[in-house]
Please model this.
Amino acid sequence: MPATAVLVLLVLFLCYIYLKHIFTYWERRGIPQLKPTIPYGNIKEIGRSTQISLLIRDFYNQTKDKYPYFGVYFFQRPVLIVNDPSVIRNVLIKDFKHFQDRGIFYNERDDKLSAHLFSLNFDKWKILRNKISPTFSSGKMKFMFPTMLDVGQSLQQYISVQTIDGECVLEMKDILARYTTDVIGKCAFGIECNSLTNPDAEFWRMGKRTFEAPRHKPIITFLIGSFKRLAVMIRTKVIRDDVSDFFLNIVHETVHHRKANDIRRNDFMDILINLTNQEEGSLTIDEIAAQAFVFFLAGFETSATSMTFVLYELARNMDIQRKARHQIVTVLERHNGVLTYEAMMEMSYIDQIINEGIRKNPPVGVLIRKTTEDYHIQETNHTVPKDSTVIIPVLGIHRDKRYYPNPDKFDPERFSAEKKVENDRMFLGFGDGPRSCIGYRFGMVQTRIGLISLLSKFEFTSCSKTMGELKYSLRNVILSPEGGMWLKVSKI
Model:
């Protein structure tokens, strides 16, 4: 046998031995693990026949009656998945000091928009979150309400035009994503995006490209996450250049225009601009662009998807839809037919519907944390090493009959005043603990306004184009319906 062939075989053999060793990482620490496959570990199907939330849900369903936590491998990267409610609470809240980071890749030097609040490590995240939090107070939401309501009325008018003959079949996911794009464009950037009326609106196209045409395939993204330091060293980017250029230019132009003309809008962008003027700990314009970018992405896609799933469920449960509409009409009558902030807050059943929709189909189907120091799991002899990735299977937990009886049933009564405290215990739709969703209030307000605007004037039912069994997109990191959501819409 030629020496070259021998050398190749030797290298392959050594790689095999190395991987065999890597794939016993959890086993060597006494923690149960699912059997990995060389060289992919446990995620070889991602991007081909499954999606990360669905994969983790399947892992959860295989193990929930066996293990409180267990190990898997994303390529050569060991990952701990936590099933047990008490351990989950410790990870998210009680022992947060051990889990302060998400461990998500960002490259502040070469990929400026990737260094945002969602991905930043704890030290930078803590400072930034404290500065940005006032933007999302109840008072700020009340102040932004009229702006959001204007877009809600535009949504209502748009559907009215489409249903000029009384009814039509519409793809609601696309329409609702345009609605949330316009809301966030106005509230965060002070820009009229006009996505509802202009199908080629640039703001809308760039947001959509981020999710539907990412820079890398899912497998490459996981590889980047497995070798973060190397990825930064070789100047890897995760955000598309056209998307990055667009948002950086928008923010630079907006900041320059507002400063030059002393314009104050008391919105999200104002808060960020103020952070560039501080003597100590001020932010650069590129840094505030990253925060505006993630606020836009998180707000437009998750809220639109949440509303889409809710309308799908309401179309299949007409009694629940009628009950929701009855409450809307009743409350509006008490407020002279005007949707005010106070009127919206009285519509408790709308909140129940939203929460149950997120419970059944959470757009963010997993939560990710990284250990910032060695963590000893209480009442065990197991230690999770520093820099380990920990995943919480939100979708699996939300569909577990131990916590939500008859989990496949859409039942807003789970979140009634009487049952809410009980069900809140395992509701993870917005995360939990210090790194929970900072824009929760904003997302809820724009979702309420969207649903109220629609349900007050239109009825939604299934049609021949409505999927019977819900199918999820395998391309989107957010849990979303495959091929959109087609529903029959009728004027009331």
